[in-house]
Amino acid sequence: MASSLPAEESSVPVVFLVGAARYETPMGPRQIIHEALDRALPAAIRTNHRLILRAPNGDELFADAFVGDVQRAYGRVEITVEATSIDPPADAEPRPFTNFGFDHLAIAVADRAGARDFFHHALRMQIVRDDEHQTVLTTGHTALFLFDARPGIPLSDPAPSKWHHLGFVVDDLEAALWHIQRYGQGVSSDFTLLERDERWSLYLHYQNGPVRLMIQISEIKPEARGLREPRRFADHLYDYSRGPYGAAAKYST
Q1: Alpha carbons 154 and 92: distance in angstroms, whole number
Q2: Model's pTM, two decimal places?
Q3: I want to staple 80 with a disulfide (CB 3.0 to 4.6 A). Which of 50, 51, 54, 64 is the partner?
Q4: How far apart are CA 218 and CA 143, in angstroms?
Q5: Beta bridge partners of 101
Q6: Which of 91, 95, 86, 77 minimizes the C-alpha distance to 189?
Q7: Cα(150)–Cα(108) distance, rounded to whole angstroms?
Q8: Which of 42-51, 165-174, 202-211, 232-241 has the lowest mean pLDDT?
Q9: pLDDT tens digits for 140-167?
């Protein structure tokens, strides 16, 4: 299976080995493995599977690694994919999970450098990532992800100033997925469960009339959980979960 790149862009062959099957697509060196997965792998693998990616020597890879970096490290981009279904068994009983709340908001912008400078300088957010793939700014407990508004990005809306996706953190990702599949009207899973350095993530789409919203749910790996200095901000935040919000709710009968 293959996709084309603009003639002026150098390409790197990216190969995925899934069991006895082989899938290949050309990618630019500053594109990420996630994009190659979206182009090369069939929907049957990209939907409702937990994927572990390994380099030719067995090292584990992550989906947001740059293609060129993988090529320099290993000489070629040939990735073995371990795909395990995460669909619940037919007789599976629902199990509880906890949604810990809003983790990050991702938006697509026409001028990513300008948006980065605004949120960094004007709103004093800390820049923790800024490269060809994305810009990430944080206040410590929440993050803002900035993506370029352009066609061809997997799971993205090419229009600028649109919600790219909303990210939530849960304690049991598979339980959350099964719960959403059971009770979520208008929800589809358009991408598989991907491992990153600090988390496992699954992307869902929710259709509401003409509006289609992308939602990411993540489970943070045990070694990456916890905030280093929670008291720096927690004592100044409002607990929305305490009950009805606002003066109108307070005086309503």
Answers
A1: 32
A2: 0.65
A3: 54
A4: 14
A5: 169
A6: 86
A7: 8
A8: 232-241
A9: 778 888 888 877 666 556 667 667 787 8
